[in-house]
Amino acid sequence: MNTTDAPTRPVRRARTGLSNRVGRDRPRIAARKGNGGGSLPYLLVLPAVLLFLMFILAPALYALVVSFQARKVTGGLLGSTSTVVFAGLRNYRSALGDSELWTSILRLLVIGAVTIPMTVGLALMFALMLDTARAKLTRITRLAIFLPYAVPGVIATLLWGFLYLPATSPIGGDHFNFFGSTSIFFAVGNIAVWGAVGFNMVVIYTALRALPSEIYEAARIDGCSELQIALRIKAPLVRPAVAMCTLFTVLAVLQLFNEPNTLRPLSNAISSTWVPLMKIYTDAFVNSDIHQAAATSVLLALATLIGSFMAARTVQARASQEEK
User: Fold this and answer.
1) CB-CB neighbours of 105 under 10 Å
2) Is 292 within a domain?
3) Does residue 200 share a domain with residue 281?
4) How far apart are the C-alpha atoms of 35 and 31, rounded to whole Å?
5) Rounded CA separation 157/177 (Å)
6) Residues 213 and 120 occupy one common structural domain
7) Among 51, 116, 135, 272, which residue's Cβ finds the most Cβ atoms within 10 Å?
8) Residue 198: how many other CB atoms lie within 10 Å
9) Model pLDDT for residues 158-190, shown as the tens digit of each residue
10) Does residue 297 contact residue 289 with C-beta atoms inside 8 Å?
11) Count of domains in the chain?
12) Is residue 166 situated within a structural domain?
């Protein structure tokens, strides 16, 4: 017994001492990890925060300050001097009473009525078609559908502008006037839909791929066809993704500027105040009335924030009801 117990006692003591040292060092290691883990996320987020402050928040605050100001010209008929004075809500009253602004908002609503259903509907249809069991060459097809989203808006509008022109149109521009007073809404909406469907398709397709495949197998065992699975199972399950894509499309329509502004030299139906952002641009850089333009931009930003907030709350409410 003595010969067997003697060697084991020092080993046990050594193990006990090692465990004690490890136990004492654990708080130090945890503290080091805690300090590094606490500062690293802030460092990673810092560039995005700085860009947001410089290019989003600072211009928004400057526009808000300018919207409450006006330029007063003094010096008689010559108007030799001008000073910036506080104007209160005068610029906002002038913006809300501007008939051109309300007309541009009406045009934007018409474009939205054409663009939003087409964009979301085509994105959902393409995603459902690519997610079927019989789909072939899905990678190439996804890339082909997504590729227009990578084309800048101005370049895409120029390309479609040449497709619309009667002299260069291969799609019947010499027989149909794409730049008419009514058809111009569909011409602009077509460019917006062509560039936005790919991104929304990828979002919905990703949501479809995240669904468990056992649901589809059970539906096929019950005798459901691929069309029934797509319409009655897949489409309801990706409703939150469809709602998110709808919100993105609404925000994109509210920011519509490149397409009509690029097509303006090709069509007499597009005026300098055709949509709200073109109205703001004309007031600021053509009429040199930055105060009126700032007030209009603040009103448009508030309307966009309120609309996006209401849409987000609606999406969250529907998602919570589906979970229940």
Assistant:
1) 15
2) yes
3) yes
4) 6
5) 17
6) yes
7) 116
8) 21
9) 999 999 998 888 988 888 999 998 999 999 999
10) no
11) 2
12) yes
